[in-house]
């Protein structure tokens, strides 16, 4: 059985019998976890082991674990700083800023892999711009070269920790005021401006072999009337053909308000697949997820299956051995020192 094209969420701390049967559906390929699914590292490890035991190949298990405002697991995990913290260090000392970004990427991946998670939806590759509150300090920096250098370091650290990275939000969410969780933002810039700023970051990171991306639920009116995640122009013409991207494309949550322009959940799923998405996220609406599962075709596309299979985590290790390692203790001390003040969560249990 190959991995299906739908990723959905779970209700609580334990897998229910109903959810266990649901996850056997061949059209499901993965599970995304949220704060409501987490109590402590031991509970998380048990939950993931149960999910992974359901099928072969194992279902992908993911989480939004960027740091700062977007970190689903807190107690028992290192409190990670927002990406902008590395940008601030970079402005004073680029070498140290990149080294700390690499350490954070490794620490993030190592802690998550010790509980069995396959990957985190990170890092944010958007440029930081005062126009966007929802991105804000989740972005590394305002300048293209700084974002590229810091992202490369972070992605390399994640890879050393056994985890693939997912760049978001293609082709760039940082210059729009609206929050796609609440509405469908529109980017009014001309194509040349987008190409010379946001898109340059994705182009250079993709050239390094970026494993996966999430497109933005943003309309870039200079080129298409559809949000990027539903746009053949952005995903097939620009991403696949022009940028030569070979990785997996995960839709942003189809239940976000920014996706509503595409119709109901079945229409949204069909539009995202037609545009070029490999996996569809449907969160916080079980009824909608079931309706999509009943409607989505089980294509069995070997190329899509291969892209998704590469997202499985590597370097299995126990939490006990990780906590005892000198490299882990050093990394924790360095990263905690960057983040002395408490961070508030985004305020919603939805993909970020």
Description:
This protein is of the alpha/beta class and 352 residues long. It has 13 helices and twelve strands. The strands form four sheets. It has a five-stranded parallel beta sheet, with helices on one face. The chain has a three-stranded parallel beta sheet with strand order 7-9-11. Strand 2, helix 2 and strand 3 (60-63) form a beta-alpha-beta unit. Helix 4 runs parallel beside helix 5. The radius of gyration is 19 Å and the shape is globular. The model has no long low-confidence stretch (mean pLDDT 91).
CATH superfamily: Glycoside hydrolase, family 3, N-terminal domain
| Approximate shape | globular
What is the spatial order of strands in the main beta sheet? 6-3-2-1-12
Give the count of structural domains.
1
The assigned structural class equals alpha/beta
Per DSSP, what share of the residues sits in E-state strands of 2 or more residues? 5-15%
Number of DSSP strands?
12
Q: Compute the separation of the termini in Å.
A: 30 Å
CATH architecture: Alpha-Beta Barrel
Unreliable runs, pLDDT <50, ≥5 residues?
A: none
């Amino acid at each position: 059985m190959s991995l299906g094209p739908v990723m959905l969420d779970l209700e609580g701390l334990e897998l229910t019998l109903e959810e266990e049967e649901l996850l056997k559906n061949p059209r499901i390929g993965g599970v995304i976890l949220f704060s409501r699914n987490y109590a402590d590292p031991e509970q998380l490890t048990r939950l993931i082991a149960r999910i992974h035991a359901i099928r072969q190949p194992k279902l992908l298990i993911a989480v939004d674990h960027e740091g700062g405002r977007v970190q689903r697991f807190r107690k028992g995990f290192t409190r990670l700083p927002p990406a902008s913290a590395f940008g601030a260090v970079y402005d004073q000392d680029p070498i140290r800023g990149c080294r700390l970004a690499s350490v954070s990427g490794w620490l993030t991946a190592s802690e998550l892999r010790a509980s069995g998670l396959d990957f985190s939806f990170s890092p944010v590759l958007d440029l930081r711009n005062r126009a966007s509150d929802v991105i804000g300090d989740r972005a590394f920096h305002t300048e293209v070269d700084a974002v590229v250098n810091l992202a490369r370091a972070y992605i390399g650290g994640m890879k050393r920790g056994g985890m693939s990275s997912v760049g978001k939000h293609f082709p760039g969410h940082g210059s729009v005021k609206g929050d796609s969780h609440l509405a469908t933002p529109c980017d009014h810039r001309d194509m040349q401006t987008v190409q010379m700023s946001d898109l340059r970051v994705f182009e250079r990171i993709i050239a390094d072999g970026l494993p996966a991306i999430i497109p933005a639920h943003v309309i870039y009116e200079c080129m298409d009337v559809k949000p990027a995640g539903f746009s053949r122009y952005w995903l097939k013409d620009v991403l696949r053909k022009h940028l030569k991207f070979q990785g997996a494309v995960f839709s942003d949550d189809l239940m976000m308000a920014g996706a509503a322009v595409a119709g109901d959940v079945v229409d949204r799923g069909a539009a995202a697949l037609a545009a070029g998405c490999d996996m569809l996220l449907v969160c916080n609406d079980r009824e909608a997820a079931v309706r999509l599962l009943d409607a989505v075709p089980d294509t069995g596309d070997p190329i899509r299956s291969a892209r998704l299979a590469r997202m499985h985590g590597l370097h299995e290790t126990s939490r006990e051995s990780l906590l005892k390692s000198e490299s882990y203790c050093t990394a924790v001390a360095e990263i905690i020192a960057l983040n002395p003040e408490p961070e508030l969560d985004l305020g919603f249990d939805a993909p970020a």
